[in-house]
Amino acid sequence: MLLCVCVKVGIAFQLEPFHEHVFLERHLDGWCPPRGPVRNFMELVCIGLQRNPYITVEKKREHLEWFRSYFLDPDRHDILKLSGAIEMEGGEGEHESQQQQS
User: Fold this and answer.
1) 33 lies in which domain range?
2) Strands 12-17 and 4-9
């Protein structure tokens, strides 16, 4: 038996599979770090979207895609690394040893 969620889209209603509305973490695979502040934040975004029955699955995916493009934007990498939101390549110890050699 397939459970569906009825979502109002304009004046029409659209039936969407229930699992598409609530299992959103799979959209984080491949780009979101496995742990850390960005992962924690994105899990909370998924929980918020899971609990919202008033928007379509497509809109939920669009929200997740916006965050994906935000966090993967090269212009923001320096800020995210310095703030500790994402890990530096090679770890901090390697970065410090490179500075000492200079």
Assistant:
1) 22-88
2) antiparallel
Q: Is residue 76 part of a domain?
A: yes
Which residue type occupies 90? G
Residue 81 forms part of a structural domain: yes
d(CA 14, CA 10): 10
List all residues 6 or more positions away from 17 whose beta carbon is below 8 Å from its beta carbon: 2, 3, 4, 5
81-96 confidence digits (pLDDT tens): 888 877 766 554 434 4
- Where helices occur in the chain by DSSP H, the ranges are 18-22, 37-50, 57-72, 74-83, 91-101
Cβ 53 vs Cβ 14: under 8 Å: no
